[in-house]
Amino acid sequence: MSFSKDVKEELSHRLSNARHCLLAELAAILSFEGQLVCSKSGNYIRLQTENLMAARKYFTLMRKTFNINIDVSVKTNIASKNKRTYIIIVRRQDEIDRILQATKLSESIFISQAKADKESHIMRLGLTEPEITQNSCCKRAFIRGAYLSSGSMSNPKKAYHLEFDVARLDKALQLKELIQAFHIDAKIVKRKNNHVVYIKEGSQIVDLLNVMEAHVALMNLENVRILKEMRNQVNRQVNCEAANISKIVAAAGKQMEDIIYIKEHMGFGDLADGLKEIAQLRIDYPEASLKELGAMLSPPIGKSGVNHRLRKLSMIADQLREHKEEDINDN
Predict the structure, then answer these.
(1) In contact, 74 and 59? CB cutoff 8 Å
(2) Spatial distance between the Cα atoms of 150 and 62, rounded to a whole number of angstroms
(3) Domain count across the chain
(4) H or E element: which one contains 76?
(5) Per-residue pLDDT tens digits for 270-322
(6) Which domain holds residue 243?
(7) pLDDT digits over 123-138, tens only?
(8) Do 205 and 257 belong together in one domain?
(9) Is residue 250 in a domain?
């Protein structure tokens, strides 16, 4: 099971005790997923989903909130590896009116003609009026319903991305505003004919899961984030240490080159005792650090002292090279 489905399964078990929150969650589900099919034989509300747990939640919300008769059917799509679609239908006109009035859904928008009956047409249920989400708890319930009906989330081990796929811009703007009420920076992008409300920051996705009360998913995501951060920290430390080692090796190589040049062109006899001593130690211990070289001296000196002597040797080597070039040019 994907992380996105795990979130939906957890949310499908989350059922509020307050009627106003049940209405807010159901309003989101109907607004984002619901259809009103109109025909000569009668109208009906239709909800459909490929997620069994979400279908059960839809059914439970309808039954608990309105205590109405609901038809449930299952359609198997052989072309899509026997994927099942769960269809929930409310047929009685008085019950449809109760639902639309209680959830404060505005006028529906025409989508298309029904394939099975050319005299029927399908309406997408409209925008929810603001009064349904006045309370903070109702905002949470609405966002929860929106995720159940139109939300998805990528595997956090690969990337942080949570989104809601919304058909209409006004609904996307409404959802974005509700999410931002919890100080979460949701954004909107158009994708084909739909509008996608999305969040890409890991910490903000954690906040949204908390808003929706998906606490198990929240903890799982936090565990993934901690592991990723630990890996990143280790990688940064390893890269830093590797870079430092490369610098040390390069510096030691340059020091060895300078010291050998001095030895070949003038010898160590004219060098001061301190320079002669450090030069010989560097030749004897090419892989030693400055601190280790300093500890071998008698008396011992610190890293800065060793570095100072090695820089002097480097200057002497450079001077010898310059004199050699001048001699060559003179000849």
Answers:
(1) no
(2) 18
(3) 2
(4) strand 71-77
(5) 888 888 888 888 888 887 888 888 899 888 899 899 889 999 998 988 888 88
(6) 232-330
(7) 888 888 899 999 999 9
(8) no
(9) yes
The Cα–Cα gap between 21 and 141 comes to 6
What residues are paired with 259 via a beta bridge?
none
Burial class (CB in 10 A: 0-12, 13-18, 19+), 50: middle
The C-alpha atoms of residue 72 and residue 76 are separated, in whole angstroms, by 14
User: What is residue 128's DSSP assignment?
Assistant: B
Token digits of residue 230: 């630990």
Rg (CA), the chain: 36
Query: Which pLDDT belongs to residue 149?
Result: 93
Do the Cβ atoms of 154 and 69 come closer than 8 Å? no
- Compute the residue count for the chain: 331
Burial group, residue 205, by CB count within 10 angstroms (0-12, 13-18, 19+): buried
Euclidean distance between CA atoms 58 and 86, whole angstroms: 10
- Residue given tokens 């009116």 in the structure block: 97
Asked if residue 227 belongs to a domain, the reply is no
pTM of the model: 0.71
Which of 182, 213, 244 is the C-terminal boundary of a domain? 213
Q: Which of 213, 242, 272 is the last residue of a domain?
A: 213
Cα 56 to Cα 63, 87, 103, 202, distances in angstroms: 10, 10, 19, 30
